[in-house]
């Protein structure tokens, strides 16, 4: 049976592994390697075309992960990096040249903006931030020197869903490369390359790992963009440790069942939050009354456990009473693991093209794999402590 005829879950169970090549082991082993030996001078002379030539350029373990990322994202090629931020930085640097102009959604992940503002600006690259809901009107912002359009859908912290199809249609017509931060979907609930995007980037630290125990970035792309991305990747000397690659491969095998449960649990908690007097607003695109729901239905097959909500304004002391009493919800950076997290946030500090004035305190929540009834009970107790 052809690979294209198989369902995504089946492909993810079998991609990136070849037991016959590794003494029958089900999983690709951990290859710790720097030096790769060649059997003869002819092989050494031909090393430029060899897939294995030096540990920094990849081992069977990291190559297996890259193959699996291609299967997950529906991509032609993939690269893996030590973190999500390193993957973002490599993409941005790949298209950076003096005088270039980038368009970046105003809802982008904070470090994406900082790289544009503090690093790219030094090299003469100008960034314009745009309203994430702009859609096809992004054409009004394009200049002759525009080289790249950066999307993130749903947006970081505020969860606006972008009209990816409309933006990519404009970009293709104008010869501009498109990139999307696809971390929210884990690559499982959305394959943006099939929707016209050129490059999909993820913090594999999140859902690909799924267990809050490794750092990883992934870049999935069309064949046309690979050489340019790999050149920057090699020049910066990036490589992923084999143990992290192994853990990421193991996480991928269960991403389907995990994401399905995050979807169910997250929606149950989101619906409950929407019914509470203390909650002014819930930002979850899978809810029918969310402004981005129609676009979410078009571009996604499910929802992850990450979303946001806004409570009535309270002082920091009251907020501490709410958060400090949690035992199931942790407070910390990142998300995408099996455990639930909740942190107060202030998206307004990252906005320049739009404003964020929700009328209360914004909170980001990641609903993990615990029983949602237990999580709801703990949130209810936390809201009671606000009083």
What are the key terms here?
34% helix, 387 residues, globular, single chain, seven-stranded mixed β-sheet, EC 4.4.1.13, Aspartate Aminotransferase, domain 2, 12 helices, 11 strands, 2 domains
Query: Portion of residues in helices?
Result: 25-40%
> How many whole angstroms does the radius of gyration measure?
22 Å
Q: Briefly, what CATH class of the largest domain?
A: Alpha Beta
Assembly type:
single chain
| CATH architecture title of the largest domain | 3-Layer(aba) Sandwich
Q: Give the overall average pLDDT.
A: 95
Q: Globular, elongated, flat, extended or rod-shaped: what is the shape?
A: globular
State the separation between the terminal residues, measured CA to CA: 61 Å
Give the SSE string. Answer: HHHEHEHEEHEEEHHHEHEHEEH
Structure description:
The structure is a single chain. With 387 residues, this protein is α/β, with parallel strands linked by helices. It has two domains: 251 residues, Aspartate Aminotransferase, domain 2 (3-Layer(aba) Sandwich), CATH 3.40.640; 130 residues, Aspartate Aminotransferase, domain 1. It is built from twelve helices and eleven strands. The strands form two sheets. The protein has a seven-stranded mixed sheet with strand order 1-7-6-5-4-2-3, sandwiched between helices. Helix 4 crosses helix 5. The longest helix is centred in the C-terminal third of the chain and has 20 residues. The chain is globular, with a radius of gyration of 22 Å. The mean pLDDT is 95.
